[in-house]
Amino acid sequence: KLSKRLQTIADRVTPGSRTADIGSDHALLPVYLVQSGRVPSAIAGELNTGPYQAACKAAASAGLTAVIAVRQGDGLCVLHPGEADTVTIAGMGGSLMADILEAGRLSGKLEGVRELVLQPNVGEEFVRRWLVRHGWTLTDETVLEEDGRFYEVLHAVLMPSEESDNAGLYDPSFLNKPASQTELWTNWLYRMGPHLLRQPTLTLHKKWEHEIGKLERILAQMAGSDTPDARAKEAEFRMEIAQIQEVLACTP
Ligand code: SAM
In terms of domains, do 16 and 139 share one? Predict the structure, then answer.
């Protein structure tokens, strides 16, 4: 049985899509997708030798070596253009994820890919910004809690530009803030998720309460240090907390 996190990712993959899972580790996701009949075939890409060998072993012991290709390499370089309809990347930082997507785009490896299912562990904003910059439309976002940790799963597709409305998606006017503050609240939409904020769930609130708790613990540790640097950091964290609370208070 998959973890709730991996199951949420698997459920976002369009049935029938040839899927490449990048940074696949033990290939749990591709093995599940093929075994369950959701996808006909998959590619498991891994940079590091240990996880690559684990993925090879997993595909072999599931008897799926004919339909799961396990390949070692950096990011999307393991793909041939046109080979995958869907790319999944999970369990790494959003900044690294955006770098992998960008390198893949520049080398043509994303050609033919129509769907991305991405689960950044941190730095979700880097992924959202990359998607917007390259014409991908964020169609769905989910936040889930598992074993005391929070995970976001982002689903994006390529659609004709007349059907896509990225500008509208990141327009913070639904938060009812003054127009002079548009840039500030747009930045918070990138950080917190434009769909998540339009339909906030209890889990979203819990995630950000948890983030506030982390910031408050750092502030508590900083109390007593009186350098200009510490003061500036303290003010920055306090503002961050206030802004998170303000966004959550404005959500529908
Ligand atoms: N995707 C799995 C999941 O979500 O459970 C595994 C996540 S694991 C924490 C991250 C994996 O990404 C590691 O196995 C690591 O070796 C791999 N990785 C890191 N950088 C990579 C890159 N540039 N290209 C391919 N794999 C990478």
Answer: yes
